[in-house]
Every structure is written in structure tokens, then in C-alpha cells.
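Lecture notes, part 5. Sequence design as translation. It can be helpful to think of inverse folding as translation between two languages: the language of shapes and the language of residues. The source text, in C-alpha cells, appears below.
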């Protein structure tokens, strides 16, 4: 996936408004639209997406460490926030946006550079007129759970 992604950049709101969420994410995944800059900064890529579900994958390394010798909790929170928020985005009508209003993360075990690839999976719980709820899980290739999360997003543009 990493090789297919375009250089980091942003898409104008006008261009986003003209696409369904599926078209938008398919465009990023195919390298036709710029990759989000945060993906390059943190080092994660989108793997799978569909209606109500989104998966990102990243591999923690020394760049993500805190002074105590483990991966900073913000790394897991960023992956989960992205996966849950993008799961919300997949459910929106063209022209609508969202923003996170609440983010809750529960850490199960520490991440290290030896953990290897991890996946953040976000799934929809509820989408209403003005808010949406999603939950997330962060796990390794063996299915071990590292963190869970939940989010509330405000739906914008109605």
C-alpha cells in the first residue's frame, strides 16, 4: 500500500465535497489524491475501508518512544482516532464533514519497536443527524489487543 500512496498533501474542501466517502478513500488508496500528511509523520497507512469500517496499519519504532522506553501513548491514540474518525467519514453523505469531540483510549499493554506491525480498526456504533459514535481496537499480527478506544464525532455541514 505504501508504494501506491501519493506524496503527502491536502485536498480542497471543494474537491472533497464532490466525492462520496468511498470515492475519496479509494482516490487516496490508489495514489490519485494526496496521502494525509499525518500518515507520513507517524508512519501509518490505510489498509482497508468500507461502509462503517476503516483499518490503518503502522509499525512503531524508536521515533515513537517516550523517555521511559516504550512507545508514547499518543501513537496508539492517533491511530485509533484516525481509524474511528475515518469509519465515521465512510458513513457520511457527500458534502458533510466531521470533527472529533470526545476521544477515550484504554491501554491494555505497552507497544515497543519489537511489537511489529499493528492495526487500528475503527467501526461505527451509531450515526445520527448531528453526532456519530465509533469504537476502535489496536492489535498486532497475532491478534493481541494493545488498546481500545471510543469516539464521538460532531457531523458538520448540515
Amino acid at each position: 500500500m505504501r508504494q501506491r500512496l501519493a506524496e503527502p498533501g491536502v485536498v480542497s474542501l471543494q474537491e472533497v465535497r464532490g466525492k462520496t466517502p468511498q470515492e475519496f478513500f479509494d482516490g487516496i488508496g490508489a495514489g490519485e489524491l494526496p496521502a494525509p500528511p499525518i500518515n507520513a509523520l507517524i508512519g501509518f497507512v490505510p489498509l482497508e475501508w468500507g461502509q462503517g469500517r476503516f483499518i490503518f496499519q503502522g509499525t512503531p519504532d524508536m521515533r515513537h518512544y517516550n523517555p521511559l522506553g516504550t512507545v508514547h501513548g499518543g501513537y496508539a491514540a492517533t491511530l485509533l482516532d484516525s481509524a474511528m474518525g475515518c469509519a465515521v467519514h465512510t458513513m457520511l453523505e457527500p458534502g458533510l464533514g466531521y470533527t472529533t469531540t470526545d476521544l477515550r483510549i484504554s491501554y491494555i499493554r505497552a507497544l515497543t519497536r519489537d511489537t511489529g506491525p499493528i492495526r487500528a480498526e475503527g467501526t461505527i456504533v451509531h450515526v445520527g443527524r448531528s453526532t456519530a459514535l465509533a469504537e476502535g481496537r489496536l492489535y498486532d499480527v497475532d491478534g493481541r489487543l494493545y488498546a481500545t478506544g471510543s469516539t464521538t464525532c460532531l457531523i458538520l455541514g448540515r
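The translated text above is only one of many valid answers, since several sequences can fold into similar shapes. The chain has one domain: 13-156.
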